[in-house]
Amino acid sequence: MSFLTLITIALIISLASVMAYKKYVSNKIALNRSNAWPEVLDLIIASLQSGASISESLSAIGKVGPAFVREPFLVFSTKIESGERFEAALNYLKEEFADPITDQLFEALYFASMFGSRNSIKVLRELSEYVSSDLALRGEIQIRFGWIRNSANLAAVA
């Protein structure tokens, strides 16, 4: 093989390694964020029950929430403190997380803030229960998929 061919192969392998690592990291972050939502919902519910406003509740998550979701909530808090409208700051959070669970959460909070709702805590509790059961089901599916994949790999080797 020529020197140029070896360099090309090494470059392709290193590029593939970097891409695989980035995908692994992004998947890990997404998994950690999705696992943090039941705790985030519980914190929001507790804050609302103690009499805090919705924007105060969301801002508090930037300080006391799970580490994987703090940064966007700190940015949200900064946006609110600088005078940006609640709707625009909430849209920032929706775009930052880009997840169906967060879309439901932020839409419920948006409607509660715009139209007022006595049932917002009840809705958030139901969403929290749904998210917890959904995460448990996803975990079980991942485990069973792992079993099937490992069995298929063993069958292919044998």
Estimate the mean pLDDT confidence.
Answer: 88
Oligomeric nature of the chains: single chain
Structure annotation, total helices = 6
Q: What best-fitting shape do the alpha-carbon axes yield?
A: flat
Task: Please state roughly what percent of the residues sit in beta strands, choosing from under 5%, 5-15%, 15-25%, 25-35%, 35-45% or over 45%.
Answer: under 5%
Number of domains: 1
Q: What would you note in describing this structure?
A:
With 158 residues, this protein is an all-alpha fold. The protein has one domain. Helices cover 88% and strands 0% of the residues. It is built from six helices and no strands. Helix 1 crosses helix 2. It is flat, with a radius of gyration of 21 Å.
A few lines on this structure:
The chain has 158 residues and is mostly helical.
